[in-house]
Specification:
The complex is a heterotrimer of chains A (about 300), B (about 170) and C (about 425).
Chain A (H helix, E strand, L loop, with lengths): L1 E5 L7 H16 L5 E5 L7 H10 L4 E5 H4 L4 H4 L10 H8 L2 H12 L2 E7 L4 E5 L14 E4 L3 H9 L3 E4 L5 H7 L4 E4 L1 H6 L2 H4 L2 E8 L3 E6 H5 L3 H35 L3 E4 L4 H6 L1 H10 L4 H8 L3
Parallel strand pairs in A: 1-2, 1-3, 6-7, 9-11
Antiparallel strand pairs in A: 3-10, 4-10, 5-8, 5-9
Chain B lengths: L2 H42 L6 H22 L8 H5 L4 H30 L13 H40 L1
Chain C lengths: L1 H15 L3 H15 L5 H11 L6 H14 L2 H13 L5 H17 L2 H18 L4 H12 L1 H4 L4 H9 L6 H29 L10 H27 L4 H19 L5 H34 L2 H12 L3 H18 L2 H18 L4 H16 L6 H10 L3 H6 L2 H16 L1 H11 L1
Helix pairs in contact in C: 1-2, 2-3, 2-14, 3-14, 4-13, 4-14, 5-6, 5-12, 6-7, 6-8, 6-11, 6-12, 7-8, 7-19, 8-11, 8-19, 10-17, 11-18, 11-21, 11-22, 12-13, 14-17, 15-17, 16-17, 16-18, 17-18, 18-21, 21-22
The chains are: A alpha/beta (about 300), B mainly alpha (about 170), C mainly alpha (about 425).
Bound molecules: sodium ion (NA) (2 copies).
């Protein structure tokens, strides 16, 4: 079999190395019965398209953010609830355990098998006005968010002005004040040069959205039990590599932005932010009552 | 031209004009909602969050439905130079063949888009909360209308070719 | 084999005269079918190929251009140019070129430029004793400069085809000098021919007339200032600038100039819809086609091939230009931008060319194709508007081709022409 792998990132990126290692390990352990190629830099299309193509078995595997997957798989949307994870370590623990299994079950209903959970960091707020310490600091701030009701709801609940905007336009908009701020993880904040125009990075870690090394269920079901075990093990191993590389990358980015004069502050008390999210959670659970158990499982974990 | 073909031609023109009307309204609506976005963002200081996604949806309707009209009017960008070098009736046959290929592709497009619409029914477009299938609908319409317009033109071309072939031969020989 | 099917069916359909957009769709669907992919993937790629945010600027630019054309803004610009530069020898040719700079700068569409300016200027030029072929040649070739002078929707198509990561405002800035350079080269050619044929000069109408014509034209010119200024200053995004420009042109022609009738409005809207859908469906099907080119790794194959022929950047660029010129003879611009950018841009990067400069070079090159037979929509429209036979126009067009080729060579081999202005604004 000749597998096709989809990846949005450039070749030298933690996710990309993880995927390459996955493919190499599968080829090696199956003694060449399975070969394949990872297509980096999104040459096989946009993420929403690629998700559909994995469901159809046209693309055999790929690494997707659970954020956009939520449009097709409601269970995946749970991790897009702001402040649902308390830390990245807690996210690993829950995703490698029951929460991950529940989301995997949801994915499988749509023809996707999760092989491992990759780290995509924690997103925090940054802006050009002032450090954010309390929800009041967000009030009246124009914040760019991704196109998702939950993120718009999050900013609105904090009293800010949510502005969905194409990613490519954010730098210019920050520079000219069309928006005051945005939110992202440190590597993105650094690589997009947003730190040059929005000096205040406030570690809120409001969104910790993992990425999923996903395989088409069609492909997975066509494998022998022995090969399925190989694939699952390779998936887990590649996730470990990716998490380690991601950690290193994040550290380097933090150093770069600090050297560039960014003011980084840790938000001491996240409780008022979490409390402000009540309307977002209420609305989400009213629309998805069958996800209550999963939300509570994550929210109540320590 | 017989009575019935005249009626068919009128019906096709009416259908094409309907497509043009629909896509023109989409364009005007696009300008209006985007004007509202600019106004909201710079004057009211509140960005309407639904405009971006609605605009992308509207562009789909302008493109695909408008394209059906352009198929009917036979003014899509194309290279007719090679078939024009063929003499008669080769040129007419090539023209009809091109139309039939186009019509066949339109049919494939329509059916594939039906599949795609069913597939995307449970996926929601962000910010608008409508099924993703609404994004596929104009492509389905484009396929279906392309089938009708190009198929009818190809058919007429063949009819003309058949009916004129004997008189034409007599005259030219 | 899959690649052979893709390219074979594409050329077969082109040969029969199937529209380019659909020929790409049919070829892509056939290749997907051969590879055992479900057919719906063709249309999924097509639909998401047009659901790209930056492409929203295209309907706005096109709509703004149509409103200017049918709402009397273009006519005022021509009058202004004519009072300003009409008194040189062969002055109406300079008027023509200067108007293209002003108007093409706004509509961003060479064909719209020709039908607008050509129908205003060609009859006047003939009346004043210029021959028809000369009038058509000047109109047609100068409209090409409008493609490079911002705003230009072809620049947006290029930025999208390049896979993002290319700043549209930098492209806009990069086009200014090459656009002016093309106009200068053309003006020299036009002047030389005018001297040789002893064409007349217009009398200077006096500064008063210049001021009056300028005052009438300036509100219309502000449309361009809004679009380009909005983008360059970064106050507006490209899309917002396009929308704002379109709305401004609409309000201006309805309320200030009072020159846009309901009928003219309907004509403007429907013709904007036609142009938009033609361009956008091309972009959609090209995106399915490009997916397969990526899958078959065509760019890598071609890079390797070109690099084995020569590793001299000058030769490689010359080969790319010759290939583009040949393709430009038989196909139209937007389709070629979409097909050739993913193939040639990696090569250009490989030899150290800035993608922005490459984009401008490609636009100038393919622009030339718009006025060369056998497929040259600008030449055809120009001849139709000027009521001149194509053969007749072609006999005397060579000085203008030469001028454009000169500009193309300069843009290709002198990076500073394209890159100085964007660097200044950085
Ligand atoms: Na232009
Ligand atoms: Na040509």
């Amino acid at each position: 079999a000749d597998w096709r792998g989809w990846n949005i990132h450039v070749e030298d990126y933690p996710v990309s190395h993880g995927m390459e290692q996955f493919m190499a390990e599968v080829s090696e352990k199956t003694e060449g019965r399975i070969a394949g190629k990872v297509y980096h830099a999104g040459v096989l299309g946009s993420q929403p398209d690629a998700i559909e193509q994995v469901r159809l078995g046209i693309i055999n595997f790929g690494v997707f953010s659970l954020g956009p997957m939520g449009q097709a798989v409601p269970e995946a949307n749970v991790v897009s609830l702001p402040f649902i994870f308390k830390s990245v370590d807690q996210m690993y623990r829950l995703m490698d355990g029951d929460a991950g299994a529940a989301i995997d079950a949801g994915l499988q209903k749509k023809g996707i098998v999760a092989l491992g959970w990759y780290d995509a960091g924690a997103r925090s707020f940054y802006n050009s006005r002032q450090p954010i310490n309390t929800p009041a600091d967000v009030e009246g701030l124009k914040v760019r968010v991704m196109n998702n009701d939950l993120f718009v709801g999050m900013i609105e609940s904090l009293g800010g002005n949510a502005t969905p905007m194409a990613f490519a336009e954010v730098y210019q908009s920050l520079k000219t004040g069309v928006v005051d701020g945005a939110e992202n993880n440190p590597p993105s904040y650094e690589s997009t040069n947003h730190y040059e125009v929005a000096k205040y990075y406030s570690i809120s870690e409001h969104l910790i959205i993992p990425e999923c090394l996903c395989m088409s269920k069609k492909t997975f079901d066509s494998l022998s039990e022995e090969d399925q075990a190989i694939v699952l093990a390779a998936g887990k191993a590649s996730a470990e590599l990716e998490r380690q590389l991601w950690g290193e990358r994040e550290k380097k980015s933090m150093e770069t932005v600090l050297a560039g004069g960014t003011q980084v502050n840790q938000i001491a008390d996240k409780a008022p932010f979490q409390a402000a999210m009540a309307p977002v959670y209420d609305k989400f659970l009213a629309e998805n009552p069958d996800l209550t158990d999963l939300v509570n499982l994550i929210r109540n974990a320590d | 031209m017989s009575h019935s073909t005249g009626a068919v031609a009128r019906a096709l023109n009416a259908l094409s004009n309907l497509c043009l009307l629909a896509s023109s309204c989409s364009l005007v609506l696009l300008v209006v909602v985007f004007g509202w976005l600019v106004f909201g963002r710079y004057v009211l200081n509140v960005t309407p969050t639904w405009v971006e996604q609605l605009s992308l949806l509207l562009v789909g309707y302008i493109t695909f439905v408008g394209s059906a009209t352009v198929v009917h009017e036979d003014s899509h960008l194309g290279v007719t130079l090679f078939r024009d070098m063929l003499g008669s009736p080769g040129r007419e046959i090539a023209t009809a063949l091109a139309d039939f290929i186009l019509a066949g592709f339109g049919l494939v497009m329509a059916f594939a888009c039906i599949d795609l619409m069913q597939f995307g029914w449970s996926t929601k477009l962000p910010m608008l909360n409508v099924p993703e299938s609404l994004r596929t609908l104009p492509a389905f319409l484009c396929g279906a209308f392309t089938f009708v317009f190009a198929g009818a033109r190809g058919g007429r071309q063949i009819l003309l070719l058949l009916s004129s072939s004997d008189t034409h031969e007599n005259r030219s020989l | 084999m899959g690649l052979a099917i893709l390219l074979g069916i594409f050329s077969g359909c082109l040969f029969l005269g199937v529209p380019v957009a659909f020929a790409m769709g049919i070829a892509a669907a056939s290749a997907f079918f051969y590879e055992g992919f479900p057919l719906l993937i063709t249309f999924q790629r097509t639909i998401s190929g047009i659901s790209v945010f930056s492409l929203l600027a295209i309907p706005f630019f096109v709509f703004a251009g149509e409103i200017m054309l049918h709402g009397g803004i273009a006519a005022r610009l021509v009058r202004f140019a004519s009072t300003l530069v009409g008194h040189a020898r062969g002055g109406l040719a300079s008027v023509n070129i200067f108007s293209s700079m002003l108007f093409g700068g706004i509509s961003g569409s060479a064909v719209a430029d020709i039908s607008a300016l050509g129908s205003l200027l060609i009859p006047v030029m003939k009346e004043k004793g210029y021959s028809g072929d000369y009038a058509v040649n000047v109109t047609v070739t100068s409209s090409i400069a409008g493609i490079v002078i911002p705003p230009s929707h072809n620049m947006i198509i290029f930025a999208v085809a390049a896979g993002g990561g290319i700043s549209i405002s930098k492209l806009f800035l990069a086009g200014v000098v090459p656009g002016i350079l093309m106009c200068v080269c053309l003006a020299i050619a036009a002047y030389a021919v005018a001297i040789k044929r002893k064409y007349p000069a217009e009398p200077f109408p006096g500064w008063r007339a210049v001021v009056v014509a300028g005052a009438a034209a300036i509100p219309g010119l502000i449309t361009a200032v809004i679009i380009v200024g909005g983008v360059l200053s970064g106050i507006f995004t490209v899309t917002e600038s396009g929308a704002f420009g379109a709305i401004y042109a609409l309000l201006l022609t309805v309320f200030a100039y009072r020159s846009l009738s309901w009928r003219a409005f309907v004509t403007a809207v429907t013709s904007a819809v036609r142009t938009t859908s033609m361009v956008m469906i091309l972009i959609g099907f090209a995106s399915a086609f490009a997916y397969l080119l990526a899958l078959y790794q065509v760019p890598t194959l071609l890079t390797n091939l070109l690099v084995t022929i020569s590793d001299n950047p000058i030769i490689i660029l010359l080969m790319i230009n010759v290939m583009l010129l040949m393709l430009g003879m038989i196909m139209d611009m937007a389709a070629l931008i979409l097909i050739c950018t993913p193939i040639f841009l990696p090569i250009a990067r490989e030899i150290g060319m800035d993608p922005i400069q490459f984009g401008i070079m490609m636009l100038v090159n393919l622009g030339l194709g718009l006025c060369t037979p056998p497929v040259g929509s600008c030449l055809f429209v120009g001849c139709a508007v000027g009521k001149v036979k194509i053969e007749q126009a072609l006999k005397t067009i060579w000085p203008f081709y030469l001028a454009l080729l000169m500009a193309l060579l300069l843009v290709t081999y002198v990076p500073a022409i394209s890159l100085t202005l964007p660097a200044l604004f950085d």
